[in-house]
Design a protein that fits this description.
Length: about 210
């Protein structure tokens, strides 16, 4: 009985690896032209997305952290790409610095998460500059203050993955002046400028319109 299992398990693993390898080699590269992307509402693939930020600590080093709980809604129309809509929602209490003590106090100290348990960004204008580059202007609400913020966006492409699922991906960067959002804790020991990096991958099922 056990001798059969010893032979069967490696065979199954080999078959799986061969199938994945064949699918990967047959996958076409993502199309870098956003005008070729199908219209519709795209759902965030949270397993392949991240929001990471960093701030200068006492002028000595960059302190990097991420947010674990967030969502991004994206609706696209190739006939009018600049009318597309993007909405980002972040739970500030999900700040992850790798330090349990900091994760408990920093959301309150810097983001006033005890009073404002949600950070949002809602797009108001999208401009495509070509070559996969563009900007998304929107209203950022942080610590109860709403101000315009511009994201520099790179479109990484769209297409079907190795399993035939339609995907698309973007990378966005911006610098937030936190004092403009009434977040002044520990300035200047902790920097006023916060670098923000958003990397997202979306899924659109074939039956979605």
């Amino acid at each position: 009985m056990f001798s059969h299992s010893v032979h069967i398990v490696p065979a199954l693993l080999l078959m799986t690896a061969t199938a994945v390898s064949a699918a990967a080699t047959s996958q076409t590269p993502p199309d870098p032209d956003p005008n070729h992307m199908p219209a519709g509402v795209y759902k965030l693939d949270k397993a392949h997305a991240s929001i990471i930020a960093r701030v200068l600590h006492q002028g000595f080093a960059w302190y990097t952290f991420r947010f674990d709980n967030f969502d991004v809604a994206y609706a696209f129309d190739p006939k009018s790409p600049e009318a597309s809509r993007v909405q980002v929602t972040v739970d500030p209490r999900s700040m992850n610095t790798g330090n349990a003590k900091a994760d408990k106090s920093f959301p309150v100290d810097f983001l006033k998460a005890d009073f404002f348990p949600k950070v949002t960004f809602v797009s108001t204008a999208i401009k495509y500059a070509g070559n996969g580059k563009g900007t998304v202007t929107g209203d950022l609400t942080l610590a109860g203050v709403t101000r315009p913020q511009i994201l520099d966006v790179t479109f990484l492409g769209s297409g079907k993955d190795m399993f035939g699922v339609l995907r698309t991906g973007f990378s966005a960067k911006t610098v937030i002046t936190r004092s403009a959002f009434d977040s002044t804790a520990y300035i200047p020991l902790v920097g006023d400028a916060v670098e923000l990096m958003i990397d997202v991958e979306f899924i659109k099922k074939p039956d979605q319109s």
